[in-house]
Amino acid sequence: MIYLVDDDASVREALTLLLATYGKQVTTFPDAAHLLAHMDRAKPGILILDLRMPATSGLQLLKKLADMEIEWPAIMITGHGDVEACRRAFKAGVADFLVKPVDEHVLIEAITACEGQLADLLARQETRGLLDHLTTREREVIELVSKGLGSKEIAAALDVSVRTVDSHRAAIATKLGTPSVAEQTRIFLSAHR
Fold first, then answer.
1. Which of 41, 99, 101, 137 could form a disulfide with 81, with the two C-beta atoms 3.0–4.6 Å apart?
2. DSSP states along 19-78
3. Which residue range(s) make up the domain with 42?
4. 25, part of any domain
5. Which tens digits make up the pLDDT trace of 76-116?
């Protein structure tokens, strides 16, 4: 899903038609307020934001989304690009900064890069969801496992018996869906990137 926010209806229409030819699904909004009112957080996507819009700029919108803990990949587009605007956009976390009229191939390349970022984001959210099922003690155990400690070392560090640690490790394996210590560690570390 691509969320396009631009106050110029002709830009919204042209980009929607262009992206449809590439099989991209686009939802458009005339301003930040409409996006914020109608976006579905359960359907993450790529943001294409106009830098200069009345009321709320693309950069201000990115800040509002970050405050809401929505960190979807974003492409900033503008008809008024300058070095300072570009610098501020990249500092705000945009993946790309494009000047209107946007070159078709450059836009598709930017969207493709954002799709990779979005896939990484969704994978991290999924692993965080798995870790949310762990108890506080199980989180402590998996953190120490990820540091390479064995059951005896973990027991000493947490001041519990080895049998208790092994019990927690069995529960972790069940909740994370894998008995592999390497896979458990990968899940833990990928959620904390």
1. 99
2. HHHTT--EEEESSHHHHHHH--TTS--EEEEESS-SSS-HHHHHHHHHHTT----EEEEE
3. 2-120
4. yes
5. 999 877 788 888 889 988 999 999 999 999 999 999 999 99
